Amino acid sequence: MARNKLIFYYLFLLVMTFCYSQRDKKNFRKDYKYVEATESFYKFHTMSKKGQDAKDMCELEGATIFYPEDQNEADAIRQLWNETQVVLPRIYIGVASWIVKGVFETFDGRPINDVYSNWAPGEPNNANDNEDCVIMRRDGTLNDVNCNDKNPFVCKKTLSSLEWNTNCDIPNLDYTYDATLGKCYKFHSEPKGWREAYATCNAEQSYLAIVDSQAEADHLTRMTASALRDNVQGNLEQPAVFLGFHKRRGVWSTTKGTKLVNSGYSKWGNQQPDGGDNETCGAMFYNGLLQDLKCDLKCFFICEHDVANLSNVFDDRYGASQ
Ligand SMILES: *[C@@H]1O[C@H](CO)[C@@H](O)[C@H](O)[C@H]1NC(C)=O
Ligand SMILES: *[C@@H]1O[C@H](CO)[C@@H](O)[C@H](O)[C@H]1NC(C)=O
Ligand SMILES: *[C@@H]1O[C@H](CO)[C@@H](O)[C@H](O)[C@H]1NC(C)=O
Ligand SMILES: [Ca+2]
Ligand SMILES: [Ca+2]
Questions:
Q1: Residue nearest to atom 6 of ligand 2 (CA)
Q2: Per the CATH hierarchy, to which homologous superfamily does domain 176-306 belong?
Q3: How far apart are CA 152 and CA 296, in angstroms?
Q4: For the segment 144-157, what is each residue's pLDDT rounded down to a tens digit?
Q5: Which CATH number among 3.40.640.10, 3.40.30.10, 3.10.100.10, 3.20.20.370 corresponds to the domain 33-159?
Q6: Which ligand has the nearest atom to the CA of 247?
Q7: Rounded to two decimals, what is the model's pTM?
Q8: How far is the CA of 197 from the centre of ligand 5 (A)?
């Protein structure tokens, strides 16, 4: 009896430590680096994007597009840049003429003169009357450029804004844990095409949900039903929920490569699949039955996140590899 109590107490302590020390551990995501000088996490995106797409990408990752608050942060990022990215010549920063040409503001509405504003000589010059976005060069100077130019960029997350979802072990409170299935899910109520949905889940360190049991299909059906009572955003083109399966070389399979017929759940809806080669992306009706859809249609989708089980958590966090 006493022994059991002790074990429970020990477990309780471990769980409490885990819950409350995430910030102390200075952990956001594996792909972000923590900088003590600014108490923030940063990630250099080396795949260039247009100005707006760069901002959106950072938000998908649960961060925001970086701009230097001041000289101190500009120096810190240049040091990280120097240490980790020897070839990148420039980055987009989160400053632009978002609203009115020539009025440069941060994405969160601060005038550039209130933050770092080290323009290169002769800039901003609004060349060809078409420069509303801002890049920072390796030397720390700023230049206005065309927002359609593709450039690398940096995303930022401050330590103070970090919110940890302890059940799902992920810095995203939108995911809900289902104890029976041992998984976490997020219903996206902003409709997107299948590929964009796939990329969105990936940016959230998750994947487009793969149904592998009737119980999971039931859970996703219930999630969908309750989500539909809330506000639907954007332009829904088909009443359906995209899932992580598709037709590859004529065979329906999950995005992890298992044939759909072997995946544990493959109940098609009435007459489905009916699209031939026109409909090669997987979705479910609101009742959980599967359908094939055109990949470009904008639909709801659900992301799924695997939770490391308790023994893995112990190994990762405490190095207790007994
Ligand atoms: C970049 O790294 C080089 C070599 O390590 C160093 O000499 C230089 O001072 C660094 N520049 C900055 C801005 O940190
Ligand atoms: C696929 O689309 C083409 C062109 O719109 C159409 O002619 C064809 O019937 C469609 N196939 C199926 C199986 O719906
Ligand atoms: C839990 O983790 C252990 C050790 O890594 C592994 O062997 C086991 O399969 C995992 N269980 C589940 C349900 O994932
Ligand atoms: Ca310019
Ligand atoms: Ca269909």
A1: 278
A2: Mannose-Binding Protein A, subunit A (3.10.100.10)
A3: 27
A4: 999 999 999 999 99
A5: 3.10.100.10
A6: 5
A7: 0.84
A8: 18
